[in-house]
Design goal:
Radius of gyration: 26 Å
Largest sheet: 7 strands, antiparallel
Number of strands: 7
Structural class: alpha+beta
Order of helices and strands: HEHHHHEHHHEEEEE
Number of helices: 8
Protein backbone atom coordinates (compact mmCIF):
# COMPACT_ATOMS: atom_id res chain seq x y z
CA UNK A 1 0.00 0.00 0.00
CA UNK A 2 1.48 3.36 -1.00
CA UNK A 3 2.24 5.98 1.59
CA UNK A 4 -0.03 8.51 -0.17
CA UNK A 5 -3.00 6.15 -0.11
CA UNK A 6 -2.34 5.35 3.54
CA UNK A 7 -2.29 9.04 4.48
CA UNK A 8 -5.50 9.69 2.55
CA UNK A 9 -7.30 6.92 4.40
CA UNK A 10 -6.05 8.17 7.73
CA UNK A 11 -7.22 11.72 7.00
CA UNK A 12 -10.62 10.46 5.86
CA UNK A 13 -11.08 8.37 9.01
CA UNK A 14 -9.97 11.31 11.15
CA UNK A 15 -12.51 13.59 9.47
CA UNK A 16 -15.36 11.12 10.06
CA UNK A 17 -14.42 10.61 13.72
CA UNK A 18 -14.07 14.34 14.34
CA UNK A 19 -17.46 15.01 12.75
CA UNK A 20 -19.14 12.43 15.00
CA UNK A 21 -17.36 13.62 18.12
CA UNK A 22 -18.13 17.30 17.53
CA UNK A 23 -21.75 16.92 16.35
CA UNK A 24 -23.36 17.41 19.81
CA UNK A 25 -21.18 20.44 20.53
CA UNK A 26 -22.07 22.09 17.24
CA UNK A 27 -25.79 21.48 17.84
CA UNK A 28 -25.54 23.00 21.31
CA UNK A 29 -23.72 26.00 19.88
CA UNK A 30 -26.64 26.72 17.57
CA UNK A 31 -29.31 26.09 20.18
CA UNK A 32 -29.35 29.50 21.84
CA UNK A 33 -28.23 31.63 18.96
CA UNK A 34 -27.29 34.46 21.34
CA UNK A 35 -26.13 35.10 24.85
CA UNK A 36 -29.28 37.13 25.43
CA UNK A 37 -32.03 35.74 27.61
CA UNK A 38 -34.59 36.48 24.88
CA UNK A 39 -32.92 34.46 22.11
CA UNK A 40 -35.45 31.62 22.12
CA UNK A 41 -39.11 31.00 22.84
CA UNK A 42 -39.44 29.66 26.36
CA UNK A 43 -41.83 29.33 29.29
CA UNK A 44 -45.34 28.03 29.88
CA UNK A 45 -48.83 29.16 28.84
CA UNK A 46 -50.85 26.70 30.89
CA UNK A 47 -53.21 24.55 28.83
CA UNK A 48 -52.44 26.69 25.76
CA UNK A 49 -48.68 26.16 25.85
CA UNK A 50 -48.53 24.25 22.57
CA UNK A 51 -51.31 26.07 20.73
CA UNK A 52 -50.50 28.00 17.57
CA UNK A 53 -50.79 31.67 18.49
CA UNK A 54 -48.97 33.09 15.43
CA UNK A 55 -45.64 33.14 17.31
CA UNK A 56 -42.77 30.71 17.44
CA UNK A 57 -43.69 27.54 19.38
CA UNK A 58 -42.21 27.30 22.85
CA UNK A 59 -38.99 25.33 22.45
CA UNK A 60 -38.24 25.23 26.19
CA UNK A 61 -41.13 24.52 28.54
CA UNK A 62 -41.80 22.56 31.70
CA UNK A 63 -45.42 22.09 30.65
CA UNK A 64 -46.01 18.48 29.66
CA UNK A 65 -47.25 18.16 26.11
CA UNK A 66 -50.61 16.46 25.74
CA UNK A 67 -50.98 13.54 23.29
CA UNK A 68 -53.31 15.62 21.12
CA UNK A 69 -50.77 18.41 20.80
CA UNK A 70 -47.95 15.95 20.21
CA UNK A 71 -49.65 14.79 17.03
CA UNK A 72 -49.66 18.27 15.51
CA UNK A 73 -46.75 19.14 13.19
CA UNK A 74 -44.23 21.64 14.51
CA UNK A 75 -45.22 21.18 18.15
CA UNK A 76 -43.02 18.28 19.18
CA UNK A 77 -40.86 18.77 22.27
CA UNK A 78 -37.21 19.61 21.75
CA UNK A 79 -35.06 16.48 21.30
CA UNK A 80 -32.80 17.84 24.04
CA UNK A 81 -35.46 16.92 26.57
CA UNK A 82 -36.98 13.88 24.92
CA UNK A 83 -35.91 10.27 24.76
CA UNK A 84 -35.63 10.16 20.96
CA UNK A 85 -32.71 10.86 18.69
CA UNK A 86 -29.71 8.79 17.79
CA UNK A 87 -27.48 6.95 20.23
CA UNK A 88 -24.83 9.65 19.92
CA UNK A 89 -27.36 12.41 20.70
CA UNK A 90 -28.63 10.56 23.77
CA UNK A 91 -25.16 9.53 24.98
CA UNK A 92 -22.76 12.43 24.32
CA UNK A 93 -20.29 11.02 26.88
CA UNK A 94 -19.92 7.81 24.88
CA UNK A 95 -19.58 9.88 21.70
CA UNK A 96 -16.73 11.91 23.13
CA UNK A 97 -15.08 8.82 24.61
CA UNK A 98 -15.19 6.89 21.34
CA UNK A 99 -14.12 9.91 19.30
CA UNK A 100 -11.23 10.66 21.65
CA UNK A 101 -10.06 7.04 21.66
CA UNK A 102 -10.16 6.70 17.88
CA UNK A 103 -8.64 10.13 17.38
CA UNK A 104 -5.73 9.42 19.73
CA UNK A 105 -5.14 6.08 17.98
CA UNK A 106 -5.10 7.76 14.56
CA UNK A 107 -2.73 10.51 15.64
CA UNK A 108 -0.48 7.91 17.19
CA UNK A 109 -0.32 6.01 13.91
CA UNK A 110 -0.08 9.00 11.57
CA UNK A 111 3.54 9.62 12.38
CA UNK A 112 4.22 5.91 12.11
CA UNK A 113 2.81 5.82 8.58
CA UNK A 114 4.40 9.07 7.49
CA UNK A 115 7.99 8.18 8.35
CA UNK A 116 8.00 5.27 5.92
CA UNK A 117 8.49 2.52 8.52
CA UNK A 118 4.91 1.29 8.36
CA UNK A 119 4.57 0.58 4.66
CA UNK A 120 3.64 -3.05 5.20
CA UNK A 121 1.23 -2.50 8.08
CA UNK A 122 -1.81 -1.54 6.01
CA UNK A 123 -3.62 -4.82 6.64
CA UNK A 124 -2.93 -4.59 10.35
CA UNK A 125 -4.32 -1.06 10.52
CA UNK A 126 -7.49 -2.11 8.70
CA UNK A 127 -7.94 -4.98 11.15
CA UNK A 128 -7.55 -2.61 14.09
CA UNK A 129 -10.18 -0.26 12.63
CA UNK A 130 -12.57 -3.18 12.25
CA UNK A 131 -11.96 -4.26 15.86
CA UNK A 132 -12.66 -0.74 17.14
CA UNK A 133 -15.83 -0.59 15.05
CA UNK A 134 -17.03 -3.88 16.50
CA UNK A 135 -16.36 -2.66 20.04
CA UNK A 136 -18.43 0.49 19.44
CA UNK A 137 -21.19 -1.60 17.85
CA UNK A 138 -21.42 -3.95 20.84
CA UNK A 139 -21.37 -0.96 23.23
CA UNK A 140 -24.36 0.52 21.38
CA UNK A 141 -26.20 -2.80 21.52
CA UNK A 142 -25.45 -3.09 25.24
CA UNK A 143 -26.84 0.36 26.06
CA UNK A 144 -29.93 -0.21 23.93
CA UNK A 145 -30.58 -3.54 25.61
CA UNK A 146 -30.34 -1.99 29.06
CA UNK A 147 -32.65 0.82 28.02
CA UNK A 148 -35.34 -1.63 26.92
CA UNK A 149 -35.00 -3.71 30.07
CA UNK A 150 -35.22 -0.72 32.43
CA UNK A 151 -37.89 1.32 30.70
CA UNK A 152 -40.28 -1.32 29.38
CA UNK A 153 -39.02 -1.49 25.80
CA UNK A 154 -38.98 -4.53 23.57
CA UNK A 155 -41.27 -3.72 20.68
CA UNK A 156 -43.94 -1.89 22.66
CA UNK A 157 -44.30 1.74 23.64
CA UNK A 158 -41.91 3.07 26.24
CA UNK A 159 -43.43 3.90 29.63
CA UNK A 160 -40.66 6.29 30.57
CA UNK A 161 -42.14 9.82 30.64
CA UNK A 162 -40.58 12.43 28.35
CA UNK A 163 -38.07 14.61 30.12
CA UNK A 164 -39.43 18.13 29.81
CA UNK A 165 -36.75 20.22 31.53
CA UNK A 166 -36.95 18.02 34.59
CA UNK A 167 -40.74 18.15 34.95
CA UNK A 168 -42.67 14.92 35.56
CA UNK A 169 -45.32 13.87 33.10
CA UNK A 170 -48.82 15.03 34.00
CA UNK A 171 -52.26 14.06 32.74
CA UNK A 172 -53.25 15.75 29.51
CA UNK A 173 -55.49 18.76 29.88
CA UNK A 174 -58.93 18.38 28.36
CA UNK A 175 -59.83 22.07 28.22
CA UNK A 176 -58.07 25.29 27.35
CA UNK A 177 -59.55 27.48 30.06
CA UNK A 178 -62.29 30.08 29.95
CA UNK A 179 -61.75 33.40 28.16
CA UNK A 180 -61.88 36.46 30.40
CA UNK A 181 -61.69 40.24 30.02
CA UNK A 182 -58.95 42.42 31.51
CA UNK A 183 -58.83 46.13 32.26
CA UNK A 184 -56.41 48.99 31.67
CA UNK A 185 -54.73 48.36 35.02
CA UNK A 186 -53.67 44.93 33.83
CA UNK A 187 -52.29 46.31 30.56
CA UNK A 188 -50.29 48.91 32.48
CA UNK A 189 -48.93 46.14 34.71
CA UNK A 190 -47.72 44.22 31.64
CA UNK A 191 -45.90 47.30 30.33
CA UNK A 192 -44.27 47.90 33.71
CA UNK A 193 -43.14 44.28 33.98
CA UNK A 194 -41.67 44.45 30.47
CA UNK A 195 -39.56 47.50 31.32
CA UNK A 196 -38.57 46.15 34.74
CA UNK A 197 -37.43 42.82 33.32
CA UNK A 198 -35.19 44.57 30.78
CA UNK A 199 -33.69 46.75 33.48
CA UNK A 200 -33.06 43.84 35.87
CA UNK A 201 -31.62 41.75 33.04
CA UNK A 202 -29.14 44.49 32.14
CA UNK A 203 -28.06 44.74 35.78
CA UNK A 204 -27.82 40.92 36.14
CA UNK A 205 -30.11 41.32 39.15
CA UNK A 206 -31.57 37.87 39.84
CA UNK A 207 -33.17 39.10 43.06
CA UNK A 208 -35.34 41.54 41.15
CA UNK A 209 -36.01 39.10 38.32
CA UNK A 210 -37.31 36.63 40.91
CA UNK A 211 -40.09 39.08 41.84
CA UNK A 212 -41.09 39.62 38.20
CA UNK A 213 -41.40 36.09 36.75
CA UNK A 214 -42.26 32.49 37.46
CA UNK A 215 -39.59 30.12 38.84
CA UNK A 216 -39.42 28.40 35.44
CA UNK A 217 -38.62 31.64 33.61
CA UNK A 218 -36.16 32.59 36.35
CA UNK A 219 -34.27 29.36 35.74
CA UNK A 220 -33.86 30.21 32.04
CA UNK A 221 -32.73 33.77 32.74
CA UNK A 222 -30.34 32.54 35.43
CA UNK A 223 -28.84 30.05 32.99
CA UNK A 224 -28.24 32.76 30.40
CA UNK A 225 -26.74 35.17 32.94
CA UNK A 226 -24.41 32.44 34.18
CA UNK A 227 -23.31 31.71 30.63
CA UNK A 228 -22.63 35.39 29.96
CA UNK A 229 -20.67 35.76 33.19
CA UNK A 230 -18.57 32.70 32.37
CA UNK A 231 -17.75 34.29 29.00
CA UNK A 232 -16.87 37.58 30.69
CA UNK A 233 -19.64 39.50 28.94
CA UNK A 234 -22.80 41.39 29.85
CA UNK A 235 -25.85 42.18 27.71
CA UNK A 236 -27.06 45.75 28.14
CA UNK A 237 -30.65 46.65 27.19
CA UNK A 238 -31.32 50.34 27.81
CA UNK A 239 -33.77 53.10 26.87
CA UNK A 240 -36.62 50.64 26.42
CA UNK A 241 -39.57 52.11 24.53
CA UNK A 242 -42.73 50.05 24.01
CA UNK A 243 -43.86 51.01 20.50
CA UNK A 244 -46.98 48.84 20.45
CA UNK A 245 -48.71 46.50 22.86
CA UNK A 246 -51.85 44.52 22.11
CA UNK A 247 -53.62 41.99 24.31
CA UNK A 248 -54.00 38.80 22.24
CA UNK A 249 -55.90 36.55 24.64
CA UNK A 250 -56.67 36.13 28.33
CA UNK A 251 -58.17 33.17 30.16
CA UNK A 252 -58.41 31.46 33.52
CA UNK A 253 -57.62 27.92 34.64
CA UNK A 254 -58.94 27.23 38.11
CA UNK A 255 -57.47 29.88 40.41
CA UNK A 256 -54.88 30.96 37.82
CA UNK A 257 -55.34 33.66 35.20
CA UNK A 258 -53.24 33.96 32.03
CA UNK A 259 -52.80 36.79 29.53
CA UNK A 260 -50.79 36.91 26.31
CA UNK A 261 -49.77 40.21 24.74
CA UNK A 262 -47.99 41.13 21.51
CA UNK A 263 -45.19 43.64 22.13
CA UNK A 264 -43.11 45.60 19.67
CA UNK A 265 -40.41 47.57 21.42
CA UNK A 266 -37.29 49.59 20.71
CA UNK A 267 -34.13 49.74 22.82
CA UNK A 268 -30.37 49.95 22.82
CA UNK A 269 -29.18 46.35 22.82
CA UNK A 270 -25.46 45.56 22.95
CA UNK A 271 -22.93 43.29 24.67
CA UNK A 272 -19.89 44.56 26.58
CA UNK A 273 -16.89 42.89 28.18
CA UNK A 274 -16.85 42.75 31.97
CA UNK A 275 -14.04 44.63 33.68
CA UNK A 276 -13.62 47.07 30.79
CA UNK A 277 -14.51 50.74 30.55
CA UNK A 278 -16.40 52.39 27.67
CA UNK A 279 -13.17 53.96 26.44
CA UNK A 280 -11.28 50.66 26.16
CA UNK A 281 -10.85 49.29 22.62
CA UNK A 282 -12.14 45.83 23.59
CA UNK A 283 -15.09 47.11 25.68
CA UNK A 284 -17.79 46.54 23.04
CA UNK A 285 -18.30 42.91 22.01
CA UNK A 286 -21.36 43.26 19.75
CA UNK A 287 -24.25 45.60 19.06
CA UNK A 288 -24.35 49.39 18.97
CA UNK A 289 -24.74 51.48 22.15
CA UNK A 290 -25.95 54.46 20.13
CA UNK A 291 -28.43 53.00 17.62
CA UNK A 292 -31.72 51.53 18.92
CA UNK A 293 -33.02 48.27 17.49
CA UNK A 294 -36.58 46.94 17.36
CA UNK A 295 -37.87 43.58 18.55
CA UNK A 296 -41.21 41.80 18.24
CA UNK A 297 -42.18 39.34 20.93
CA UNK A 298 -45.22 37.73 22.52
CA UNK A 299 -45.19 37.76 26.33
CA UNK A 300 -47.48 35.67 28.51
CA UNK A 301 -48.26 36.57 32.12
CA UNK A 302 -49.85 34.58 34.93
CA UNK A 303 -51.28 35.36 38.36
CA UNK A 304 -53.43 33.88 41.04
CA UNK A 305 -56.76 35.60 41.51
CA UNK A 306 -56.13 38.85 43.32
CA UNK A 307 -52.34 38.46 43.06
CA UNK A 308 -49.64 40.18 41.02
CA UNK A 309 -48.88 39.35 37.43
CA UNK A 310 -45.67 37.43 36.68
CA UNK A 311 -43.91 36.81 33.39
CA UNK A 312 -44.64 33.21 32.35
CA UNK A 313 -43.40 32.90 28.75
CA UNK A 314 -41.63 34.75 25.94
CA UNK A 315 -42.11 33.86 22.27
CA UNK A 316 -40.33 35.30 19.26
CA UNK A 317 -42.43 36.53 16.37
Amino acid sequence: MSRRLMNCRILLALFVCASVALAPALADARAGGSSSGHSSSMGSRGSRTYENNSAQPLSRSMTTQSPAAAGQPGLAPSPAYGSGGSFFQRHPFMTGLAGGFIGSWLFGHMGYAADGTGGGSGLGMILQILIIGLLIYFAIRLFRGRGRALFGGGGGASFWPPRSAGAAAAPARRDRGRDINLGDADLNAFQQIHAAVQEAWSASDLGRLRRLMTPEMLSYFSEELTRSASQGTQNIVANVDLVKGDLSESWDEGDLQYATAYMRWRALDYVVRLGRSPGDPDYLVSGDPRTPVEAEEVWTFVRRRGGDWLLSAIQQV
